[in-house]
Amino acid sequence: MLDTFFFTVLPYVMLSVFFGGTLFRAFRGRWVWSARGDFQWTTRSTGFFGRASIGPAALSLHWGIAILLVSHIVGFIGGAFGFVSWVAFFRWAGLLGGVLFLYGVLWAFLRRLLIRQLRAMSNADDYIALLLLLTIAGFGLYQAALTQIFGVSFPAGAWIASILRLQPNAELMAAVPLLNKLHIIFAQVFFIYFPFSKLVHISSFPFDYATRSFISVRTYWALKK
Ligand code: HEM
Prior knowledge:
Blueprint: H1 2-27, H2 51-81, H3 84-114, H4 116-121, H5 124-147, H6 153-164, H7 178-193, H8 220-224
Helix pairs in contact: 1-7, 2-3, 2-6, 3-5, 5-7
Residues 68, 72, 75, 87, 90-91, 94-95, 98, 101, 133, 136-137, 140-141, 144, 150-153, 156, 180, 183-184, 187-188, 190 line the site of protoporphyrin IX containing FE.
């Protein structure tokens, strides 16, 4: 019953809210090349404060998630079509991306807790996004590094294929370990939350850079000359 909800209904809710919500926020009222979004369409950059820790936080977090995205896709295709070496690639690349990502997210979280100016400018969205990502990565890494269960990509890949074919089959996920089910359920919650958060900045495309007028950025001293 619960499996039916989480692996048959929730995926379609997630896909509709994720794509529908993000497109709505990106182009509301004006259909332009670059997604400009509403007034909340910003990362609320924190780089002005605690400059020593923004490097490890932002670099590790973004490289980590890029590696995780690619390795998940390779793993799921491998799982769906029975390519063993693709699933093995996910195992090791996922571990590398996961450790890098966890390191960056922990830095990002600690920055917000320990740096006074960052504590003052942080809002609930900043913490919710980081906590959801920490939870998802925590489940994934716990499974990969501590319980050392691998090969869940085979049932998960087949299940994702069933969703995309519009013939959802939750039974494919029945024998998947609880840890991995929780990983996937929290990941779906994360993607449902995505359009309502600052994370929409991922959907910005710099097409307008080619045609818009220059923005001159100078140091204070250069301006004084
Ligand atoms: C709906 C989206 C997602 C699905 C369906 C999913 C599914 C999976 C599955 C099935 C595995 C185990 C692979 C195997 O045993 O062969 C896994 C591992 C993992 N996932 Fe995800 N995942 C999702 C999103 C995420 C996100 C957003 C993150 C990042 C925060 C993440 C981080 C990880 C990590 C670190 C591992 C361990 C990598 C390894 O096996 O070495 N996942 N995921």
